[in-house]
Amino acid sequence: MSIKYFPFFSHNAIRYLDNAATTHKPQSVIDAVSHFYSHENASVHRGIYTLAEHATAHFERVRTQVAHFIGAKAHEIVVTKGATESINMIAQSWAAHNLVEGDEIVITELEHHANYLPWQRLAQTHNLILTIVPAMARGMSIDALKRAITQKTKLVAVTHCSHVLGCYLDIADIVSAAHAVGARVLVDAAQSVGHKKIDVQQLGCDFLVFSGHKMLAPTGVGIAYITEAVHSQLFPYQLGGGMVGAVEKDTTTYRPMPYMLEAGTPPIASVMGLGAAIEFINNNVDFDNLHKHEALLCARLIDGLATISGVTIFGDQDQLKQSGHIVSFTVQDIHAHDVAAYLDRFSIAVRAGNHCAQPLHNALGINGSVRVSFYMYNTIEDVDALLAALQKLCA
User: Rounded mean pLDDT of 84-103?
Assistant: First the structure.
């Protein structure tokens, strides 16, 4: 994918390898946000005048776009600020009202803090059992995860792709095991939805969340897919305008899904940008080709790192060479932050630290790692420049 679509690179001479944190935006996405503010700016769902009705229609078209993009129904798509809010919303609107003392939530050590802390707190406040399946340096044993699911399990909350180790989990297999005991499954797809075709019907999950800004869209917008089968079990997450049917002195009725969970004014311009991002992906990205391109970059990086003394690579290297877009590593006797600061001298941007995954880094026995994450606009030259800089650092 040519960088010509992405104006950021016209203004910045940088090798950007931090796409797991956020991605750059094609001109069409930037234009969509600008066009909304310049030509369409009005609040949605409430105004009777033409401009507001036009904005509402556009907003709802994007909801339908998202639904088609992941194989869902429009009323199963809830607009949020991002994956973090989506998970917290599901924890408070569904889990807090449907799980009782002694019920079990299963998560893994791979999880981002956003898919760890809400369940930790809920377990503490509701006397639930929180089972954390250990991870390994190569990734996660699906068999170990399935063995952790018991008759007490009511929710399994797992990442689709680890934002540190880069490994994908077999969600359909996990869903099958969870549904066999009557448990629901939440999938954190923040690191997968922009890199491979997602179909919630094939996955079979009950909840799926992601953030727009990790798939070319603006910041401040995310999605929670909530299967229609649990809509009757949901309670409002926040209270306010837009989610009520009728408010009387002592009683209130709520609008049907998805509006019941969308209190207040949504991030309208960012939603328009999300629609433009999906359109860009649909028109320009073949996921099979993207998959091959990112895996090629991972293979080049892994093979190069293997020649540098003192470098330890985490994750299943064979899997990453076949299907990865994230590679994490450490350099002996050099803190990850210092590695990143050194690379910045060469205008190379990587992530360093615990990546909001302290339990995983503790399990691996390290205090941080360097993470390289690729996307459609990265090149072999980016990888070679990174390797050359690291060779100088470790010489």
Answer: 98
